[in-house]
TrEMBL record, chain B:
Signal peptide: none annotated. Keywords: Cell membrane, Membrane, Transmembrane, Transmembrane helix. It is found in: Cell membrane. The chain crosses the membrane at residues 6-21, 28-49, 69-95. It is a multi-pass membrane protein. It comes from the Bacteria. This is Na(+)/H(+) antiporter subunit C. Belongs to the CPA3 antiporters (TC 2.A.63) subunit C family. It comes from Robertmurraya beringensis. Its main location: membrane.
Length: 493, 113, 140
């Protein structure tokens, strides 16, 4: 029992409620919000320390024994992801001060942001499959509000579709949980894992596995189910986009990772093969999108899809090494995507457009912005020694070792094309003839650059210090490949 | 009994799908509501249908009902209630702002119209 | 055309209190029997909606000058606060405490921290439902 692992959920929840009262005082709500996220980061670091020294932490809510009540579980993977989430949320909140506008701030923006963090941190921490659904819904509800906040025509139109897609996927989630409950008779994830191991995953469980893939795939935007993502993510302003792009899809990816390693490792010939094929097609589709568009937002949005494919390919290979790579790349991608979207937000704030053909020569007046963009673009593509490299190296290496030559080859090729797609932005937008833009004078560039700078620095350190981080990521991956440690920690037999 | 329920749930899902495929936004919302009702019935069926006594109120009966699916349904109903009402308000706002509830006219992703 | 809703208005004035009383009964019954904060809150909200139907929005806002968003926030604070209270005693979040206490008039009563949590739920449900109704019903 350790209440520490609840705090990254509870602090944002409390703050969200307090911010409803503080709604009229914009300045106060900004600082309360940022301070609370800072303390969430602090608590997450403490939690990470605790997990590092004492192993997996569990908390039985309401003091009900493990398989009967709701259990929160914090292993290395979830502690790392909670930490990353808190850092990104902190950066995005700081960025919002000057980017989001009074109008949205008055409509409970900061409060909803905190609710979003509650949902995401909760989804990473929970050890109960139905509770995962509840946290998903908390997260989705907040994302609906964030998406529609501001009420422009494009936002209204996109949120209608986004909500419809997510309602259907939520219903499928409940249906899947119902099927799973009727087969194994429990909802505690560790307990489900032991029950499935006892019955040895007959056909019906494979069906459930595929249903889970559909449910989480809709959230994580894998191949046939990614269609809603480019349109919906295009509508909201930069800080919201950064939160969505960095965190929401990754919750889906995390859930696939968790369920496929904990519940369904018994029939990889079907489930993991399917996941692998879909992941590879996802990469290809994402690449095509990223290359085709001349819109900086769209290019980065399609890169989300590529990254999801790369991570899931690592999951589908299903060895300790490939999972290490997948987790490494997951954390890298969360950081760098947030940084890139925030930088794109700065570019749009300066130029007033996201059309690449109308932008050029930015590096003359904004050298810091230019270099930070270059650095994160290189990191995204996985140029050593930046953070994308280690993860991709591990994924590709293990892919070749597992004789998945096609997949590994495509991941390898994708790095090159991703590099091309982001370099296109750099070459056309930052080089070339210097132009002046209408809104240029008003843009609060120096403030807006603080948050991406924090994220880029963390990401560079994460890449350069890979040697130091590696043992923890390895520990996280070992917990995934060896579910018995997780089960023993929860059930305490 | 489970077989009957399976058919009922299937018919509800069918109707929900039909409604969600239509063009009017209001019908789509009704369809999502119907979909979540179907889901709740399915959860109830999956927990097993039997004539047991209410659980947790003493050990007097031979057979008890499984309380867990009911708890799940209650949670899911509350969530569906919230989502549906949000969707309804959003659709109303979208109708005011965009002047249509026809999904065909809501197409396209161009930002500056 | 002005509709004549005299009957509705007169009936509402009587029925409103019956519904409110019944909702409070449901709320307190909730600990051992069917009922509880959610149902009680919904029923209270139902009573308020009836009031809105019978009279118009302005009249109701004059009778009950309540900001329902703040009400939701207070409810949430109650619920989370009750749960978080268990952190002070170093037991897991949401751990439930209860005791039998002798109260004047009521006699021996069992008091539960779950009731505090339920009051939160009750307030949240009323707040949220009324906010939704008001948002849709605001503009004619």
């Amino acid at each position: 029992m350790n209440n520490l692992l609840l705090l990254p959920i509870l602090i944002p929840l409390f703050t969200a409620v307090i911010l409803i009262f503080l709604n009229r005082f914009t300045v106060a709500s900004r600082w309360v919000s940022v301070l609370s996220l800072l303390s969430t980061v602090f608590v997450s670091v403490l939690l990470f320390q605790k997990v590092r020294t004492d192993g997996i932490q569990t908390l039985n809510l309401g003091n009900w024994e493990a398989p009967f009540g709701i259990t929160l579980v914090s292993d290395m993977l979830s502690a790392l992801l909670v930490l990353t989430t808190s850092v990104i949320a902190f950066a995005c909140c700081l960025y919002s001060f000057r980017a989001i506008g009074e109008e949205r701030e008055k409509f409970y923006y900061y409060s909803i942001l905190q609710f979003l963090i509650v949902g995401i941190n909760g989804a990473f921490t929970t050890g109960d499959i139905f509770n995962l659904f509840v946290f998903f819904e908390v997260m989705l509800m907040s994302s609906y509000v964030l998406l529609v906040l501001g009420g422009t025509k494009a936002q209204l139109r996109e949120s209608v579709k986004y909500i419809l897609v997510n309602i259907i996927s939520s219903s499928l989630f409940v249906i899947t949980v119902a099927y799973l409950y009727s087969v194994v008779g429990t909802l505690n994830m560790a307990h489900i894992s032991t029950r499935i191991a006892e019955v040895g995953q007959p056909g019906i469980l494979t069906v459930i596995a595929v249903l889970f893939l559909i449910v989480f795939g809709l959230k994580g935007a894998i191949f046939p189910l990614y269609f809603w993502l480019p349109g919906s993510y295009y509508a909201p302003p930069a800080p919201v986009l950064a939160l969505f792009g960095a965190l929401l899809t990754k919750v889906g990816v995390y859930s696939i990772m968790r369920t496929y390693t904990l519940f369904f490792p018994h029939d990889p010939g079907y489930t993991h093969e399917l996941l692998g094929v879909l992941a590879v097609i996802t990469i290809i589709v994402g690449i095509i999108g990223a290359l085709a568009y001349w819109d900086i937002k769209k290019i980065i949005i399609y890169n989300i899809i590529v990254a999801v494919g790369v991570i899931l390919f690592g999951v589908s290979v299903n060895t300790t090494e490939s999972l290490t790579g997948a987790i490494f790349y997951l954390i890298h991608d969360m950081l760098i995507k947030a940084a890139l979207f925030l930088l794109v937000g700065v570019v749009i704030a300066i130029t007033g457009t996201s059309n690449l053909k109308k932008i050029s020569g930015l590096i003359k007046n904004y050298p810091l912005l230019g270099w930070m963009f270059l650095l994160s673009a290189l990191a995204l593509a996985g140029i050593p020694p930046l953070s994308g490299f280690v993860g991709k190296l591990l994924i590709i290496k293990s892919g070749f070792e597992a004789e998945a030559y096609w997949g590994a080859g495509i991941v390898l090729m994708s790095s090159l094309l991703v590099l091309f797609s982001v370099m296109k932005i750099f070459i056309n937008g930052f080089w070339g003839i210097h132009r002046t833009y209408e809104k240029e004078e008003k843009a609060p560039v120096s403030w807006l650059l603080i948050s991406p700078a924090i994220l880029v620095i963390i990401s560079v350190l994460y890449g350069v210090g890979a040697e130091l981080v590696y043992p923890y990521i390895l520990e996280a991956a070992e917990t995934l490949t060896n579910p018995s440690t997780y089960i023993n920690a929860v059930m305490k037999e | 009994m489970e077989i009957v329920m399976a058919f009922v749930v299937g018919i509800i899902f069918m109707a929900a799908t039909y409604l969600m495929l239509s063009k009017s936004l209001l019908r789509i919302i009704i369809g999502t509501g119907l979909l979540s009702h179907g889901t709740h019935l399915l959860v109830l069926t999956m927990g097993g249908l039997k004539n047991g006594a209410a659980p947790l109120l003493g050990e007097h009966a031979a057979q008890y009902n499984d309380p867990l699916p009911q708890a799940l349904i209650l949670t899911a109903i509350v969530i569906a209630f919230g989502v549906t009402s949000f969707f309804l308000v959003l659709a109303y706002r979208a109708y005011q702002e965009l002047g249509t509830d026809n999904m065909d006219r809501l197409r396209g992703t161009k930002i500056n119209e | 055309m002005r509709t004549n809703d005299l009957i509705l208005q007169t009936v509402t004035k009587v029925i409103l209190f019956i519904i409110l009383l019944f909702s409070i009964h449901l709320f307190f019954a909730g600990h051992y029997y069917p009922g509880g904060g959610f149902i009680g809150g919904l029923m209270t909200a139902g009573a308020l909606v009836l009031l809105l139907l019978a009279f118009d929005m302005k009249t109701v806002a004059n009778i009950l000058p309540v900001n329902y968003r703040i009400m939701t926030a207070i409810g949430l604070l109650f619920s989370i606060g009750t749960g978080a209270g268990s952190l002070l005693f170093n037991v897991p979040f949401l751990t439930h405490a209860f005791n039998d206490v002798y109260l004047p008039i009521l006699g021996k009563t069992s008091l539960h921290t779950a009731v505090l949590f339920d009051i939160g739920v009750y307030l949240v449900v009323i707040g949220v439902t009324m906010t939704i109704i008001q948002t849709i019903g605001e503009d004619e």
